[in-house]
């Protein structure tokens, strides 16, 4: 009992440490990505921190299986290197008991990952999508522009450029707006309206609540490329109506769909089947990776405690890449849904059994040669 508590405590400490480090690394990468979205106007700056907070739940569902996998290898590898596990096993603490103890930790983590993947994350994804859409719709387009960079609006019909933005983020200097429109006579021809002004700011009409970018002291050019019929207008103030802002969803439709809906419409859509199998694969991967970590953590005497990390990480990368590939194959009808992602888990189970047989001496070159 004391040995069991000791091992569980060591694995839990390592799990927390590894998961926190991985979470910080992946959050920093996500922050860079969302900052680029904010700079291009896809995400309003005032909801950036909330969106980043929502990412923690999604990252935990992906990182907890990896965190437990690495934690078991690190903990058991250290105990093997210090001969602690060897002494325990010589005192009657068998490999079977070690596996059962490991499964106790894995089941607790699996429950957390299952709750996150099947119920929490789809709900959070929907809230996040609404938050991002509302933030973009209510945000100030001037506030979302990056000085010195041409930026395309979501409808891909307008290009904005500003040389600089005032400190209050309400006014832009040296504003350039290019808008394209289909010709009323020939839909194949596209006319362009180009606006250049010394200053610009955004305003909202109180009656209609429509949003406008107001250009101050500039010129407006209108015409079709390749033709000489151009209109040039000088103005003191000119308002350009902004379209209704729509954000390209960060998540696919299936990722915001409740798990119950995917279950009842499993055979109606291949993407539904792929998404549901992916959600079920995350908790299952916790158990399989924990089992795999037990034989991989074995370290021979006088061998470095970190010797097994490289092959363990390579095995994990291959496993995850196969899961992603199998998910794409389901959507592309390359493999049937009943095969789906399960063949990848089957391959991992074969590897686990082979490693256990190898470690216990039941599978070796001598036996295979016989």
Structure description:
The protein has 370 residues and is of the alpha+beta class. It is 56% helix and 16% strand. The chain is built from ten helices and six strands, in the order αααααββββββααααα. It has helices at residues 2-39, 48-81, 84-90, 95-138, 141-144, 259-264, 270-296, 309-331, 342-359, 365-369, and strands spanning 151-152, 158-165, 171-182, 190-204, 211-223, 231-241. α4 (95-138) crosses α7. The longest helix is centred in the first third of the chain and has 44 residues, at 95-138. The two termini are 41 Å apart.
What is this entry, summarized?
The protein is of the alpha+beta class. The chain is built from ten helices and six strands.
Which helices and strands occur, and which strands form pairs?
Elements: H1 2-39, H2 48-81, H3 84-90, H4 95-138, H5 141-144, E1 151-152, E2 158-165, E3 171-182, E4 190-204, E5 211-223, E6 231-241, H6 259-264, H7 270-296, H8 309-331, H9 342-359, H10 365-369
Antiparallel strand pairs: 1-2, 2-3, 3-4, 4-5, 5-6
Helix pairs in contact: 1-2, 2-4, 2-7, 2-8, 4-7, 7-8, 7-9
Q: Segments where pLDDT lies below 50 for 5+ residues? A: 246-251, 363-370
- Proportion of residues in helical segments: 55-70%
For the record, give the distance between the C-alpha atoms at the N and C termini, rounded to a whole number. 41 Å
How many helical stretches? Answer: 10
**Spatial strand sequence of the major β-sheet:** 1-2-3-4-5-6
């Amino acid at each position: 009992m004391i040995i069991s508590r000791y091992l569980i405590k060591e694995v839990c400490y390592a799990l927390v440490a590894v998961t926190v480090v991985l979470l910080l690394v992946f959050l920093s990468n996500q922050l860079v990505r969302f900052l680029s979205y904010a700079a291009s106007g896809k995400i309003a700056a005032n909801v950036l921190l909330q969106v980043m907070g929502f990412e923690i739940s999604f990252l935990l569902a992906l990182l907890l299986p990896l965190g437990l996998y690495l934690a078991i290898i690190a903990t058991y590898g250290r105990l093997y290197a210090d001969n602690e596990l060897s002494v325990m096993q010589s005192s009657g603490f068998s490999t079977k008991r070690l596996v059962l103890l490991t499964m106790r930790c894995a089941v607790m983590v699996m429950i957390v990952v299952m709750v996150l993947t099947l119920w929490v994350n789809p709900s959070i994804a929907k809230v996040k999508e609404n938050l991002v859409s509302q933030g973009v719709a209510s945000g100030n387009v001037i506030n979302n522009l990056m000085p010195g960079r041409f930026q395309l609006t979501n409808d891909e019909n307008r290009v904005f450029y500003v040389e600089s933005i005032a400190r209050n983020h309400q006014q832009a200097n040296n504003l350039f707006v290019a808008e394209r429109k289909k010709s009323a006579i020939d839909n194949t021809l596209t006319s362009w309206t180009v606006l250049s002004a010394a200053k610009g700011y955004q305003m909202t009409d109180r009656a209609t609540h429509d949003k406008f970018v107001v250009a101050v002291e500039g010129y407006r050019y209108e015409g079709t490329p390749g033709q000489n019929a151009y209109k040039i207008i000088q103005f003191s103030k000119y308002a350009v109506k902004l379209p209704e802002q729509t954000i390209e969803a960060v998540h696919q439709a299936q990722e915001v769909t409740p798990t119950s809906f995917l279950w009842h419409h499993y055979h109606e859509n291949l993407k539904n089947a792929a998404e549901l199998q992916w959600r079920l694969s995350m908790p299952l991967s916790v158990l399989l990776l924990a089992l795999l970590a037990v034989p991989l953590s074995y370290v021979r005497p006088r061998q470095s405690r970190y010797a097994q990390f490289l092959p363990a990480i390579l095995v994990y990368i291959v496993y995850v890449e196969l899961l992603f590939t199998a998910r794409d194959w389901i959507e592309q009808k390359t493999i049937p849904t009943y095969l789906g992602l399960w063949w990848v888990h089957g391959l991992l189970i074969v590897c686990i059994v082979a490693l256990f047989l190898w470690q216990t001496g039941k599978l070796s070159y001598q036996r295979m040669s016989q």
